[in-house]
Write a structure and sequence with these properties.
alpha+beta, two-stranded antiparallel sheet
Length: 67
């Protein structure tokens, strides 16, 4: 079995492997209820709707603002 002739530094090895680990920009979708931009498959941060029904209510938002 072949062995490497010289030790490869951490930075050189990580640089070689990094070409397929680049960060991609997440895809965004519009909320059908209010039209705000949001991440897909997540609750709308503006109106609190998910799949056509209200999931997050205003009372929860008010408690977070007090803290």
């Amino acid at each position: 079995m072949a062995l490497p002739k010289y030790r490869i530094s951490k930075s050189r090895g990580r640089r070689r492997r990094a070409h397929y680990l680049r960060v991609e920009i997440p895809s965004l979708s519009k909320c059908p209820n209010c039209g705000a931009v949001k991440l897909p498959h997540r609750v709308c941060p503006e109106c609190g709707f998910y799949k056509g029904r209200k999931v997050v209510f205003e009372k929860v938002k008010e408690e977070k603002e007090k803290k």
